[in-house]
Amino acid sequence: MDYADLNVRNSSAYKLGLNLGFFIAFLLFASIIYFVMDKFHKIPSFIIYSKVITLVIVAFAIGKIILKLRR
């Protein structure tokens, strides 16, 4: 491993990219699951897409807080 690799991995842009990529992948996964389950009528009628998005954002934030506290 080169020292240049360590500098890139410690940069704030790299960490932002990881966090943003993880969040987008998490959001995409939740959206696909929601729409598939909605298509087959497996979701109760009171659950709407905005509640799913809110749940994804809260879960992401809680995960990041737990990671920060573990360090």
Which descriptors would you attach to this protein?
mainly alpha; 3 helices; elongated; single chain; 71 residues
* Sheet with most strands: none
Number of helices: 3
Query: Strand-residue fraction?
Result: under 5%
Q: How far apart lie the N and C ends?
A: 24 Å
Mean pLDDT: 87
| Gyration radius, in Å | 17 Å
Principal-axes geometry comes out as: elongated
Low-confidence stretches: none
Task: Tell how many strands the DSSP assignment holds.
Answer: 0
Following the backbone from N to C, one meets helices and strands in this order, namely: HHH
Assembly type: single chain
Structural overview:
The protein is an all-alpha fold and 71 residues long. The protein has a domain at 25-71. It is 80% helix and 0% strand. It is built from 3 helices and no strands. It has helices at residues 3-9, 12-39, 49-70. Helix 2 runs antiparallel to helix 3 (49-70).
Task: Provide a quick synopsis of the model.
By secondary structure, the protein is an all-alpha fold. The protein contains 3 helices and no strands. Helix 2 (12-39) packs antiparallel against helix 3.
SSE layout and pairings?
Elements: H1 3-9, H2 12-39, H3 49-70
